[in-house]
Write a structure and sequence with these properties.
alpha+beta, four-stranded antiparallel β-sheet, globular
């Protein structure tokens, strides 16, 4: 997962917090704009299921990503999907 996020982190489009007790990463979308609940449909459009922060009672442009195992062959496709979502949301 971290390999898939690295290009976006390197471009300072997102940040993340490593999980301490689970397999959930909190991904921060680096934008001053407040996203609405419908903005998060962009993830669904790319077949990425995330939990937006507003489901947890906050609204600071974070999403929770859960994962178990990502095979090396899946990293490139995940990178492409995540990049499309982030670029759409941050434009």
């Amino acid at each position: 997962m971290l390999t898939a996020l690295k290009p976006l982190v390197d471009r300072e489009l997102v940040d993340y917090r490593l999980p301490t007790h689970s397999n959930n990463i909190w991904l921060s979308l680096n934008s001053n704009q407040k996203f609405t609940s419908s903005d998060y449909n962009t993830f669904l459009d790319e077949k990425l299921l995330v939990r937006p922060d507003f489901l947890f009672g906050v609204h600071v442009n974070h999403v929770r990503i859960s994962f178990t195992q990502i095979k090396a062959a899946q990293v490139e496709e995940l990178q492409a999907r995540m990049e499309r979502v982030v670029l759409k949301m941050l434009k």
